[in-house]
Structure formats: C-alpha cells, structure tokens
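Please check our next protein.
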Amino acid sequence: MKVVFDTNIFISALVFPGGQAEKAMLKIIKGKDSLLISRDIINEVLSVLAAKFGGDRESLSRLAVNLSETGRMTEIKNRITFLADGPDNRVLECAVSGGADAIITGDKAMLIVGKYDKVKIMSLKEYLSE
C-alpha cells in the first residue's frame, strides 16, 4: 500500500519513541508499505520540530535527508485548497499527486473527511490494524 503520513505522525514517531507512530514508521522501513513524501511535508516536519522542540540545524538537516531517503519523493502536480489548514492541503497534494492509497493522520479535521479523491484518510490505529 502507498501511504502518506501527516506531519503529526512523523513528529510523534520522533518525539515519542516506542509508540504507535514509530510502529507505523517500522512498517515502512521493513517494506510492508511504501511512503510517499514531498518537500512541503518535510519542511513542515522540520518547522514544527524547530519551533516546538528546539531542533538544531545539523540534526534537522540529517532528518531531512533521512525522511527523503525513507519515502519516495513526490512531485506535486496541482495545488489543493480543500481544507482550511494549509499544511493539511499539502498532505492531500502529496497523496493525490503520488497516487497514494491512504493518508495516515491524527488530525480530526482530516479524519472527518474520510476520503479525498481516491485516497482513504485513516487513523494511525486503523492503519496499524491492517
């Protein structure tokens, strides 16, 4: 399955090791699913880490490289303005442009949508139970 992780999944995996988000990352690392990622998503993850958790430049640079190597970099074909939150739209753009099967998120506004275009929007718990 091709998936896109919302920023909150990456942040949770990095900040709370051993949790559910880390299990989702391990599914990707073990090759059970493939991760689609975009420059916008990487930039959002780095921005949140720097602002909320004080990540230093060198660590953030290494993380950017690791994320881009873990997932398949997706070129955004069309901008989407469906949701009120800009970063949520960047996740939709990555999913639609990359032909993802699902978006994995903890964002309630996205979860309420349930599906966008052909992309299912699912919780972390739902993803891990598949």
About this structure: The first strand starts at residue 2 and ends at 5. Strands lie at 2-5, 34-37, 72-73, 102-104, 115-116, 119-122.
